[in-house]
Amino acid sequence: MNTVRNQKQHDLMTKTPMTKLILRMSSPTIVSMLVSSIYNTADTFFVSQLGTSASGAVGVVFPLTAILQAVGFMIGSGAGSRISIYLGEGNTEEADKVASSAVFASVLGGIVLGVLCKLFLAPILSFVGATETILPYAEVYANYILLGFPIMCASFVFNHLLRCQGKTAFSMIGISTGGILNIFLDPVFIFTFNMGIAGAAIATILSQTVSLILLLVFVQSRHSVLKISLAKISGGFGVYSVIIRIGAPSFFRQGLASISSSLLNNRVKIYGDAAVAAFSIVGKVSFIIMAIMLGVGQGFQPVAGYNYGARNYRRVRSAYKVTLLIGCAMMSVAAVICFIFAPNILAVFRPDDPDVINIGSFLLRVQAAVLPLMSVTVSTNMLLQSLAQNKEATFLALTRQGLYFIPLIFILSSLLGLFGIQITQSISDTLSMLTAIPFAVRFFRKIKEKEAEWVDDNTASNEINMNVFENFEP
Questions:
Q1: Is the pTM of this model over 0.90?
Q2: Where are the membrane-spanning stretches (predicted)?
């Protein structure tokens, strides 16, 4: 039964028309990413009703959760990319071993990170941009969020384990259920139970717990090719080394998001709580939009991994092109909406604070202008990562929030003040896109060479078989 189910999954990934397959794989991941980002934004929305300082607190705590995401995404994407290739090769035993080890590593990583952040919480929050008025809110919010770090980290990994084998619909159900629950629980805990900003954090942890339970059930169900087991957890460092190497781009991408967010908050806080709140709100809105592109990219990754493992290089190339076109179209629509309705979007969060609206509207429009470019950056990075092109993928992951953003935030804020801070991300995004293009071109040149070698080897093998057949005497 397992063999039949594995073969059907293999045929789905390697034979389905590419546009249909990418849309099928990415639609659930887009929904799950959107719901995940929306319920994160729901915290900002409901907490904003408590005041500008409370609104800023959610943005200040973001660098801590970004570090957790960096660890979770590193383990999940690293394991998922390796698993996709194993499944393409038909090696389910090694795939199970990697999956089980990844789950163990995620729980341990969440515990260690939560304890470290708790020990140095106040200094960390001050460093990442909390003003004297924002700090009390940030401490209350963070104290509860840290308790949920192991749960959240494990959820990220289980999410990847479903996506890497093409079970994106189950991934969507698990993430979306928790996200929708969070949206309903936020006002209940914040206002009905009168728990304030602590209520938002508790609602988030409860929702993440529900998501984790559902994802665990799906991974262990008969619909999953993978099976998690304590007996399959690796005791050696080899498996973890592979996971870390392949997942390094995700770690740097998310880790640098934490660092850049901290630097951003530090530069912005001199302009007051309104500026911190505006950047926090736009950051959440931008995250929702980027979730669309990331969802397309995450739906594309198992397709690339499966077909690369099956040596179907033509479909790898086709998958990349389709992903690029779909992502660019979606980002363009989102960019137009954000550019036109920027003030209205900011007013949803802080309708009675004109400073927040004015600062945030310009920032959102500047970032919207370069959104279509992100399809190139994300598609190329995820292509390289899904096929274990570790060095190239890691370098590209370093560009957007590190190599370009970090020096630009210092230079432009010093030269142009608040305006310089507002345009930093857009300039960084443009430079990242220009950097990604030669990497994509170089990779597909290599793919053509591999494709030619594969054809030549098969042709030679067929010729040998024919000669044997012709010379055979009964």
A1: no
A2: 21-42, 54-77, 98-121, 141-162, 169-191, 197-218, 230-248, 274-297, 318-342, 362-383, 403-421
